[in-house]
Amino acid sequence: MAEPVKVAADEGQQRPAYDDPRIPWSGPPRRVDIVCWAGIVLSGIFYWATLPFRASLVGTHPVVLELLNGSTEAIVAAAAFARVGHGTLIVVLLAALFGLIKFDPLFWWAGRLWGERVIALLGGRRNRGARYMVRVKRWGRKFTWPAVVVSPFLPIPSAIIFVIAGWAGMRLLTFIILDAIGTLLWAGTLAGLGYALGHHAVVVAQTISHYGLWISIGLVVVIVFFQVRSQRHMMRTANEARAGSAAKDEARDEARDEARDEDGAAAT
Prior knowledge:
- Helices cover 76% and strands 0% of the residues.
- Helix 4 crosses helix 12 (199-210), helix 7 packs antiparallel against helix 10 (158-167) and helix 9 packs parallel to helix 11 (172-197).
- The two termini are 22 Å apart.
- The protein has helices at residues 31-50, 54-58, 62-69, 72-83, 89-101, 104-114, 116-123, 128-139, 141-150, 158-167, 172-197, 199-210, 212-267.
- By secondary structure, the protein is mainly α.
- It folds into two domains: 31-210, no CATH class; 211-260.
- The chain is elongated, with a radius of gyration of 26 Å.
């Protein structure tokens, strides 16, 4: 008599390789998932690639720096240069607008594609995204429209607001218009500060550019440190969640086996 083949109790319950908490979609990725995620990753790589030039350009070509990353110091410095006769405020604002919003539609698209999953991913340990989701469900566009406009002024990553706007169903054109309005308000505030400082801000910017290499190295070291620490925490959290799920599955299987043994003993 042939022995029955033993089937693993957890067969069919193993976590798929693509079910990773560090990615925003569940199940096999679609083409649009890959394209959108690749765009977001490339935007991060672009930020890192331009970081070494940040300090050196702020005192020599601040408008170019605006186009690259729309940084606060670039807008202030460019407006200060305009005050002393190098450029105009219109160019400063237009360069800041492009530099600040060029990657924003990617996060709106991510919200459309992945919704609550990517919001939770970007929200981090404080779960800030979940709190905003509750407000969206309660107020709808009364929350999302003003939130997109004031997002540059909020002490949270603007990407969270953009993802929520996409998840809430905001149209792309509406999103771009509101994002541009908020960005111009933010850039105008910084440009006004730089224009008021004038020559003093130019001197500071040129001093920073003089020591740009060492400042850039320091920035890279600090950012790498915090990125590595954040990645390690994310991996630790994911491993703990998987271990907890495996322990629950094992306990359930043991309880099932014990119940079967008890039923068999009762039958005999």
